[in-house]
Amino acid sequence: MSRWKTFAKKEWLLILSTLGVFLTSIYLRRLPSYSISDTEILYILLVLFIITTGLQRHNVLDAIARQLEQGRFIPTKLVLATFFFSMLVTNDVALLAIVPLTMLLRIERKDWLVILEILAANAGSALSPFGNPQNLFIYWFYQIPFGDFLSEIAPFALTFLLLLTIATFIINSKENHPPTRSSPKLSAPAYFYLGALLLFALAILRVLPILIGGAIIFYALLADRKSLQIDYALLLTFGFFFGFSDNLRVLLAGALAHPRHIFLLSAILSQIISNVPTALLLADFTVHWQPLLWGVSVGGFGSLLGSLANLIAYRIYVRQEKQKSLQFTVKFHLASYAAFFVGIFLYSVTRGG
Predict the structure, then answer these.
(1) Does the N terminus or the C terminus of the chain have fewer Cβ atoms within 10 A?
(2) Dihedrals phi, psi of 44, to nearest 5 degrees
């Protein structure tokens, strides 16, 4: 029983998506259909998961993070690193690399620094088509030109980059005494995954053929099978949500007409079921990708459920600071909902209401 409780707590999205497909399929008396775009997105996610697992296993992110803990302006460097890491290796992986390092630092206001890192991960990942799963889905599903994608979401991401950078100087402390540790040496597989990340990023941007990912999978199968130990439950969750959203499209047989409705609905719905499933659910109901992109980006702020990256960083922090979990939760929601409403304001200003 305890094992099932642990599974349900960890994989609640998978359970909900499975139930969603099962119940809607029974009601509609049909099995969901999967498009070529759906299978391409699942394939891209599989390759990205392998690459990021390889980067973690072979200490690439750890080596970079160790360099950041040296010298002055450590909070600023860590928050900026989280922002830019998230653009390349997803917000989840960036936080998995930066937050544990932050917890080792002897610094005042460590809780606020972790909170700023969480906000930076959500803001930075929004600026890249492969910064988080929902961006990748929207970018690929709507076949958006890279320039259009970047110019659309840049005001959101860059505004928060400025605000978060200013905030790091407010929390900066003269009590920075990070532990002195040498950076791990990079092995040949580490350089392979760095190159693989660059090449596959070009494939996602449609500069190179997407089939290049097959070579990355083949390499992992032959030479680095531990990098195949990825989050298959999350991949399966995506598959079920694709089916669930297809059934909902048939069930509701309509579209949300006004872009502002899409933005607000996606931002609010993200607070309940997180921004990844929100993007999957609403894409079939609108041709307006811009408000959907803004909505799930803003929706990553707010509640802990807004983004799975929020939960990852939260668990890392409270595992080591159990006595401060309530204080951290309150501070996180104060800062995160402030960012949420700033995001709504930015959308109103840049998109004309």
Answers:
(1) N
(2) -60, -45
- The residue with tokens 């668990």 is 315
DSSP 154-202: HHHHHHHHHHHHHHHHHH--TT------PPPPP-HHHHHHHHHHHHHHH
Three-state DSSP state, 253: coil
CB 124 within 8 A of CB 87: yes
Task: Please tell me the distance from the alpha carbon of residue 99 to that of residue 113, in angstroms, as a whole number.
Answer: 9
Helix locations, the chain, DSSP H: 2-10, 12-28, 36-57, 60-68, 74-89, 91-104, 110-126, 133-141, 146-171, 188-204, 213-223, 232-252, 259-273, 275-282, 289-299, 308-320, 325-350
pTM over 0.85: no
**pLDDT tens by residue, 134-158:** 999 999 999 999 999 999 999 999 9
Supply 344's token pair: 């709504």
Q: Are 50 and 216 in contact (CB under 8 A)?
A: yes
Which residue, 12, 322, 301, is CA-closest to 163?
A: 301
- Name the residue type at position 256: L
| Residue 33, helix vs strand vs coil | coil
Q: Which residues lie below 8 Å from residue 6, measured CB to CB, with a gap of 6+?
A: none
CA nearest neighbour of 251 among 30, 35, 36, 38: 30
Given pLDDT bands bounded at 50, 70 and 90, which one contains residue 121? very high
| Phi, psi at 70, each rounded to 5° | -95, 150
SS3 210: helix
Cβ count within 10 A of residue 151: 10
* Neighbouring residues of 36: CB distance < 8 A, sequence distance ≥ 6: none
Angle at 131 between CA 338 and CA 310, to 5 degrees: 40
Average pLDDT, rounded, for the chain: 84
Alpha-carbon gap, residue 32 to 142, rounded angstroms: 20
Rg (CA), the chain: 20
322 CA to centre of own chain: 25
